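Pipeline run #58 for the internal structure catalog. This entry was flagged by the ingest filter as a single-chain record with no existing model, so it goes straight to prediction. Upstream metadata was stripped on purpose; only the residue string is passed forward. Reviewer on rotation: M.T. Logging verbosity set to normal.
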Amino acid sequence: KNAPPAKKINLSNMKKLLLLIASFSFLAINSNAQYEAIFSHYQVNKLLINPATAGFDQTNHKLFMNVRNQWSGFTGAPESYSLSYNGPVGKSLGLGALVFTEKIAAFTRYRMQLSYAFRYDIRQTKLGFGMSTEFNRTRLDNSILNDPLYDTGDQIIEDGVDGYRNFDASFGAYVELPEGTFFGLSMPNLIRNKLDEISGESSGGLFNYYLFNAGHRFAFDKKNVTLEPSVLIKKVRNVPFLMDLNLKAGFLDEKLIAGLTYRMGDGGALAFLVGTKYKNFQFYYSYDAFMGDFQQYNSGSHEITVAYQIKRKKGGFDRSKKYRN
C-alpha cells in the first residue's frame, strides 16, 4: 500500500534510443564498408581476389555467376550475388568486369568493378599486373521508413536510405611458372587506405590490406588426375585475419572436381567443394561449416558458381599483326 509508484517507461525515449543504436550501427558499417566479401570459389575464379588475373587465360573469355548464402537459416545473415566477366583483348591486355550485391539484415551494398591487366611471357613464365577501379554504394532498405520506431524527419535514417557512395581502387600481380607453380598478391582499398591515413584513422599506410595466394598444380597424365594444393592469406578491411589451406582435385579431364578447404582464424571453418565441367559449362558447389559455437545457430554456408567460357577467335583481337614484318 505504501510502496512507491512504479516508474513508467517513456516509449518515446525508448524509440529514440533504438533508432540511435540502429543509426550508429549503420554509420559504423558504412565507414568500413569497403571490405572484401568472403568467397570460397576464388579457386575457380581468381578475379574475385586479384585484378591481375583478368584475361590471364589467353584462349578463352569467361563468364561467372556466383551466389553465396552465409550462415543459412540465421535471420539477417549475409547473402551475396555476383556476375563477372574476364577475357583477353589484343596481344597482352586483359579486361574484367564485376557486378556485386550483398544484403545483410537491413543493409545492402552494391559494387561495380572494372579490372585492367597486362600479361607478359618471359620464356615460359607468365606474368600479369593489373588494377581495378570500383564504385560502392551502401544503403538502408526503404522498409525502415515504415517501421513504427522511425520518427519522420530523422536525418541520419533518411541519409542512410538515400545511401552512401564512394570509389576505390586495387592493385595486383600474378605469376605462373612452367612447372605448375602459381602465386599472386593483391592490395585492395588503396584509396580508402590513403584517406584513412590522411584522417589519422590508420597508420598502416597505403598497403595496409592484402591477399596472398599461392599453390602448385600436379598433373598425373597416366591416371588423368590433377591435384592442386594452395593457400590464401587474407588481411582485409572489416574482416579478421584469415588463412585458407586448400586441396582441389580433378578427375577424368576435370569432369569431376572435388576440394577441401580449412579456414584458419575467426573460429575456423571447413569447406567442401564439388564441381563438374561439360563442354563450355562449369558448375561448382561448396558447403562451409563454421567450427565455432555460432554453428549451432545456423545450417552452414552455401556457395554456387555457374561458369561459361567462349573460345577466343585466333587473331580476332590482335591488332599487333599489322605492325609485323
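catalog note: Confidence is low (pLDDT under 50) at residues 3-11, 13-35, 316-325.
catalog note: Helices lie at 11-31, 155-162, 190-199.
status: ready for reviewer M.T.
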